[in-house]
């Protein structure tokens, strides 16, 4: 089954394929296009690494929605994205 997803802030014109037999009532979605809208597009692959013992704060939030103005750190932009799209993405929390 293929579909097109769009909303005020997100648009996917490529077919979106849903898993025919989802496990435990979940739905698997495979994006055919870009996930990263604009962050470091000149790089072949965006990779960030941290040494946990060198973190300044006891808890650091890292972006997983690719929309943070402070990428790779989370700035809460996912909240607006989730409301607009019905998505449920949140940050990766790293504890020191």
UniProtKB/TrEMBL annotation:
<feature type="domain" description="Iron-binding zinc finger CDGSH type">
    <location>
        <begin position="48"/>
        <end position="84"/>
    </location>
</feature>
<keyword id="KW-0411">Iron-sulfur</keyword>
<dbReference type="GO" id="GO:0051537">
    <property type="term" value="F:2 iron, 2 sulfur cluster binding"/>
</dbReference>
<dbReference type="InterPro" id="IPR042216">
    <property type="entry name" value="MitoNEET_CISD"/>
</dbReference>
<dbReference type="GO" id="GO:0005741">
    <property type="term" value="C:mitochondrial outer membrane"/>
</dbReference>
<dbReference type="InterPro" id="IPR045131">
    <property type="entry name" value="CISD1/2"/>
</dbReference>
<dbReference type="GO" id="GO:0046872">
    <property type="term" value="F:metal ion binding"/>
</dbReference>
<dbReference type="GO" id="GO:0010506">
    <property type="term" value="P:regulation of autophagy"/>
</dbReference>
<keyword id="KW-0479">Metal-binding</keyword>
<dbReference type="InterPro" id="IPR018967">
    <property type="entry name" value="FeS-contain_CDGSH-typ"/>
</dbReference>
<keyword id="KW-0001">2Fe-2S</keyword>
<protein>
    <submittedName>
        <fullName>CDGSH iron-sulfur domain-containing protein 2</fullName>
    </submittedName>
</protein>
<keyword id="KW-0408">Iron</keyword>
<dbReference type="Pfam" id="PF09360">
    <property type="entry name" value="zf-CDGSH"/>
</dbReference>
């Amino acid at each position: 089954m293929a579909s097109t997803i769009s909303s005020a802030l997100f648009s996917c014109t490529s077919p979106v394929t849903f898993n025919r037999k989802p496990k435990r009532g979940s739905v698997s979605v495979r994006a055919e296009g870009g996930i990263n809208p604009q962050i470091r597009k000149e790089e072949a692959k965006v990779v960030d690494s941290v040494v946990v013992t060198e973190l300044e704060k006891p808890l650091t939030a890292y972006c997983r929605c690719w929309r943070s103005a402070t990428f790779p750190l989370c700035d809460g932009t996912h909240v607006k994205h989730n409301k607009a799209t019905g998505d449920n993405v949140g940050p990766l929390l790293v504890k020191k």
